[in-house]
């Protein structure tokens, strides 16, 4: 395949990744309009936001194995068609229930796209140096979607109805369906064996249980339902591993983890996303609740860190062609750690630029690291299992993000609760409970209070949390 055709194929592959990551956050601004139009209940609002991420995480391993069997390009095109259809249904959904179902279908379709795009990069770029650059571009596309989601959502809602946030998927998916067959080569496992349906069921339910339980416990605090889901998901994951070891045709080749490069790369990805999502949980609250920015304004400010991240990825990709990858991955983790040191200096009077520098260093460290480990994951896996390997990588990212929210969110909440105990002394019981529970509650209590006794302590203490 010519270089020009390969890079054109990469451009086609980046488009769905951009949109998949945008779809996670594009509804941030649309939810109030959806609530006014469809009148969802409180639980329905939560499922409108969460159904996409849960089904995306649950389907990755299964869809990676399906792509290995039927062809990764074929699965990619099927997923693009399903993603388009679900986007139309979501845009014109007349009820909250149908919107939830459409969001769940979008997640399933997204699960077919992510491992297929990453695994096809290996086919497009057999040359090591070019593949590293291609993975850096792919990673940049995924990252750009996370940054652009709130901004695009805010802009669309200035001029159109909430359904437009879904219809932006259609042009890119149409381009993928038109150009994909010509630019993307087909690849599959030549001897896949029988599909492991019980293993697929275990994989999906285990991932759903673990991710659901972690995210709900992190956001809403302890409750019986999410805790049971987490325990059940963990048990099902153990059962999945046992089955994969015993069955003649496993859905997931656990021998991949015997390769230290593969196992270490997956572990580093989990840790990197743990740090990234966990820190974002706090920085987003700080910018909006302490500095008082509206979400759209905060999203625009977040673009200031994009050049730093872009330069970091470009430098790492260039050096990876000349140096060993391990020291570069370690350097990325050091940059990530320095970012946390900078963020630790933030208090209530800090400039927005201190937050942006810290967040930019964290983002640069994470993306440099995951770009390099992404290449190691692809090259460590045999060609017939590259789809499954890509799916494991993406599942690790989802798991790391969920752990970051659950663990760091819980730790942050505990520290905040303890340090606010003295600050709320003397307030009415209801107001004290609300202010001590969350930073948002403290802001709500402080806002109508005209005296420093009410407003100053919560603001001062929130920076320490």
UniProtKB/TrEMBL annotation:
The keyword Transport applies. Keywords: Cell membrane, Membrane, Transmembrane, Transmembrane helix, Transport. It is found in: Cell membrane. Pfam families: MFS_1 (PF07690). It is a multi-pass membrane protein. Residues 9-465 form the Major facilitator superfamily (MFS) profile domain. PROSITE patterns: MFS. InterPro entries: MFS (IPR011701), MFS_dom (IPR020846), MFS_trans_sf (IPR036259). SUPFAM superfamilies: MFS general substrate transporter (SSF103473). The chain crosses the membrane at residues 7-34, 46-66, 75-94, 100-121, 133-153, 159-183, 195-214, 226-242, 262-287, 299-319, 326-346, 352-372. This is MFS transporter.
């Amino acid at each position: 395949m010519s270089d020009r055709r390969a890079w054109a194929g990469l451009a086609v592959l980046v488009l769905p990744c951009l949109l998949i990551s945008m779809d996670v956050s594009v509804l941030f601004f649309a939810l109030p309009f959806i609530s006014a139009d469809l009148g969802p209940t409180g639980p329905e609002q939560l499922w409108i936001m969460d159904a996409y991420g849960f089904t995306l995480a649950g389907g990755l391993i299964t869809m990676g194995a399906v792509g290995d069997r039927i062809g990764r390009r074929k699965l990619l095109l099927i997923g693009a068609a399903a993603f388009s259809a679900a986007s139309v249904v979501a845009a014109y959904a007349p009820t909250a229930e149908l919107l939830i179902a459409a969001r769940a279908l979008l997640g399933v379709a997204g699960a077919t796209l992510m491992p297929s795009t990453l695994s096809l990069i290996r086919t497009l770029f057999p040359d090591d140096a070019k593949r590293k650059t291609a993975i850096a571009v792919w990673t940049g596309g995924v990252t750009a979607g996370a940054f652009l989601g709130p901004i695009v959502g805010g802009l669309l809602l200035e001029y159109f109805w909430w359904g437009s946030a879904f219809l932006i998927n259609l042009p890119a998916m149409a381009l993928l369906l038109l150009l994909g067959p010509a630019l993307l080569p087909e690849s599959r496992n030549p001897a896949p064996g029988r599909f492991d349906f019980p293993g697929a069921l275990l994989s999906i339910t285990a991932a759903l249980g673990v991710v659901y339980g972690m995210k709900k416990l992190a956001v809403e605090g302890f409750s019986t339902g999410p805790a049971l889901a987490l325990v059940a998901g963990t048990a099902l994951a153990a059962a999945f591993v046992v089955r994969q070891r015993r069955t003649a045709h496993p859905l997931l080749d656990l021998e991949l983890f015997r390769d230290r490069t593969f196992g270490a790369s997956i572990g580093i990805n989990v840790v990197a996303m743990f740090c990234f999502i966990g820190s974002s949980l706090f920085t987003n609250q700080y910018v909006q609740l302490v500095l008082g920015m509206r979400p759209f304004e905060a999203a625009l400010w977040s673009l200031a860190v994009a050049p730093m991240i872009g330069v970091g990825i470009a430098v790492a990709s260039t050096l990876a062609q000349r140096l060993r990858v391990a020291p570069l991955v370690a350097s990325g983790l050091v940059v990530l750690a320095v970012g946390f040191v900078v963020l630790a200096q933030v208090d209530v009077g800090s400039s927005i630029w201190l937050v942006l520098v810290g967040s930019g260093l964290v983002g640069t460290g994470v993306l440099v690291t995951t770009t390099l480990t992404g290449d190691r994951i692809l090259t460590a896996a045999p060609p017939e299992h590259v789809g499954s390997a890509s799916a494991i990588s993406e599942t690790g990212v989802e798991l790391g993000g969920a752990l970051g929210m659950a663990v760091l969110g819980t730790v942050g909440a505990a520290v905040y609760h303890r340090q606010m105990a003295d600050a709320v002394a003397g307030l009415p019981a209801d107001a004290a409970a609300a202010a001590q529970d969350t930073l948002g509650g403290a802001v709500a209590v402080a806002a109508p209070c005209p005296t420093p006794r009410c407003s100053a302590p919560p603001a001062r203490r929130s920076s320490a949390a």
